[in-house]
Amino acid sequence: MDLNKIDISNFLPHRPPFLLLDKILILTDEEVSASFKIEEDNLFVENNYFNEMGLVENAAQTCSSIVGKSYFDDDDTEGKGAKLIGFISAIKKITAFSCPKVGSTIISNAKLTSRFDTESYSVCSLECHIFESTNLLLSCELNLVIKDLK
């Protein structure tokens, strides 16, 4: 799959102002890396900084890309192969170190640590680390539930 051809909004149900990923940089069955530029009008910006809740939601959207990928064919660059819904079922651990300023681009790196699939949904555990350049902003472990609505 050519990641440059992917419009992430075709694969996530989120829409601006709640879509917190711009580009998928790496996407495999077990890891993902994504970028997001923080704009001044973002709903998670407070006093010129992207807040902790925005970082957590960015992590969740990044993590859901790993599991969501398995519901689509590799050549489906328009996201027509599935209609998914997902949610955070648990936050096991979270450490926020710093919040990035408006205008910054953050990079989110997530790794799948476990996954359980049924006929109608997937439950997974993931780790995510969010960086601004080499500065670690947030580290978390969370569980997601992903369900195909088709």
TrEMBL record:
Superkingdom: Bacteria
Name of this chain's protein: Hotdog family 3-hydroxylacyl-ACP dehydratase
UniProt-listed Pfam families: ApeP-like
Organism of this sequence: Winogradskyella eximia
InterPro entries: ApeP-like_dehydratase, HotDog_dom_sf
